[in-house]
Amino acid sequence: MAGSGASPALVTTAPQTVSSPVSKDLNALMLLERQLRQFSVGQRIVAIAMLLLLPMVVLSAVSAIILNDQETAFRDSVEESIHTLLPLTTLEHYLQRALVDELEAQSNESIPDFGGLTDNIDNTFSNIESSDHRGDLPEHTVLSAQQAWRKARPSIKRLIEQVRSLHPRDGRAADNLDRQELQQSIREIGQARRELALLVQARYMRAVAARHSQLRWLMWSWIITLSAAALLLAAFLHSLLRPIREIGQAAQSLGAGKMGIRLPVTGNDELTALGERFNAMAEQWEASRQTLLTEAAEDPLTGMLNRRGILASLEAELDTHTHRQQPLSIFMVDLNRFKAINDQFGHSAGDRALQWVAAKMRESLRDTDRAGRYGGDEFLIILPDADKTQARQIAQRMMQSIDHAAGREPAYPTVSIGIANAPEDGRDIATLIEVADAALYGAKSRRRHGGIQGDPATD
After folding, report:
1. Is pTM, for the whole model, over 0.70?
2. Interhelix angle 139-165/114-130, nearest 10 degrees
3. pLDDT tens digits for 30-89?
4. Domain boundaries 302-448, corresponding CATH code
5. For the chain, N or C: smaller number of CB within 10 Å?
6. What whole-number distance in Å separates Cα of residue 384 and Cα of residue 368?
7. Residue 202, Cβ neighbours under 10 Å: how many?
8. Cα distances (angstroms) measured from residue 324 to each of 300, 318, 382, 385
């Protein structure tokens, strides 16, 4: 009797050749996951928390420092603009008033502090000259502003000396001033103020560009950090969820009765240990299931299929016969003198007789044939792809072999065989067995009445 079996299948993912960027990213993610699986779940959680939180804390601190520095720089820039331009603007304003004879001396008020304003302007240019950022400023603008101030400086100095020499209540103070020289001083100071305003604007624009550069760097730092964090988090979650999903799918398949279900065992974490235990459980379950199936379908005395097993095989072969339109034959075999052997030699001898007949029948059958103990001393044999002529030849060979051996041993029985063929005698189990049974009892009757030995019945 031929057997069939299936090799256990592993639930694994075969490596594939990939070339697209998405596939490369997936491969990188899988590689990272395999590396993560070398650590326990708890170690991975701690490592991921550190790798995610530490860069973000550092980047948040850096961002706060940069933004605070930019706010300070902006405030300093505004103050610098005021301190740089205010003296020139104030001085220009006072000279305009002097031009229209509205000096404070005429209204019994204090004379403007031209000296203090002049000193402030001198200090402003000195600071620009010695500034560390001098190289960042347009050289021509700096020179133009300095030249304009140098031209206006002598006129302002003479103006200061004339104003100081006037009596506070002298109503002709403005008349003593040279209006043409005053107008020239106003123009030169206005030019110096405009050039200095351009200088302040240039410094401000460079500061703005630097701030924008810092913000872009900060933005890209956050993008890279968050992307790396997302990748690490995805790998971490994948290293947890994929094994759990595989375990769930394998358990579902095992529950559906599929055989050979195994989980891939990689890494050293708790999920790997769970996969190993699942595989061991699956192996034990399959062994137990196979034992139960064998016990349910096998006759323990002869090692052949029992009644349930041989009828299930006949049903399957009939389905194949119907689908392929190929011939099918069955034998109903009965032992002759079996009751007499039991009575004369005992039930142990009867059991040995059944085992011996089963072994002799196997010798005469093909690898594709199926034989089973139908009940008591009756056997049912299935012969796929065997027409009536082939079935008669196999039956004659089997009967002759058994009769010849039984003739030398009184404790061994002979057999009678009844044959049925599909589709000639029927297309269902009940009909075929009924026809084979009728042929069997016809053959036994002919044997009892001196029929030809080794001639199986067919009708």
Report:
1. no
2. 160
3. 676 666 667 677 777 777 777 777 877 887 888 888 888 777 777 777 776 676 666 767
4. 3.30.70.270
5. C
6. 7
7. 15
8. 34, 10, 16, 10
